[in-house]
Design a protein that fits this description.
The chain is mainly α. It has a single domain, classed as Orthogonal Bundle (Arc Repressor Mutant, subunit A), CATH 1.10.10. The chain is built from five helices and three strands. Strands 1-3-2 form a three-stranded antiparallel β-sheet. A hairpin with an 8-residue loop joins strand 2 and strand 3. Helix 2 crosses helix 5. The chain is elongated, with a radius of gyration of 19 Å. The relative contact order is 0.12.
Length: 126
């Protein structure tokens, strides 16, 4: 069996972790302002999530549109090209983002406590 180099294994782990929260990240970005496809890639990369491609974003956006979380509209391109398809949150999308943020906070705090636990540390009941 061939082992992956540490960098490749780290990228794979980051990719797996991101897969579970990418839709929440997209909702948060859309909450800032309406966006089109490549803007998501740029914003995620600026946040340190540089493993995301447009090809992985569009299926999620389509699913969120079908679920009524986002809606689309077309607007002229600033560069004079074809109109771009922008995404904006619906009321359902805003509600989902609120619930998702709360769930993420609880989850990340629990994971943080688990990962930062010192096995040699003793706990006493108060």
């Amino acid at each position: 069996m061939t082992e992956k180099p540490p960098a490749a294994a780290g990228d794979q782990r980051r990719s797996q972790l991101l897969r579970g929260v990418l839709d929440l990240c997209l909702l948060a970005l859309i909450a800032e302002r309406p966006r089109y496809g490549f803007e998501f890639v740029e914003a995620l990369a600026a946040s340190g999530l540089d493993l995301v491609s447009e090809g992985s974003i569009y299926p999620l956006l389509a699913r969120m549109e079908r679920a009524g979380l986002v809606e689309t509209f077309r607007a002229p391109s600033a560069t004079g090209g074809a109109p771009r398809k922008y995404y904006r949150l619906t009321d359902e999308g805003r509600a989902e983002l609120t619930v998702g943020r709360s769930a993420w906070r609880r989850f990340s705090e629990a994971v943080g406590r688990t990962l930062n636990h010192d096995p040699g540390e003793t706990h006493h009941d108060a």
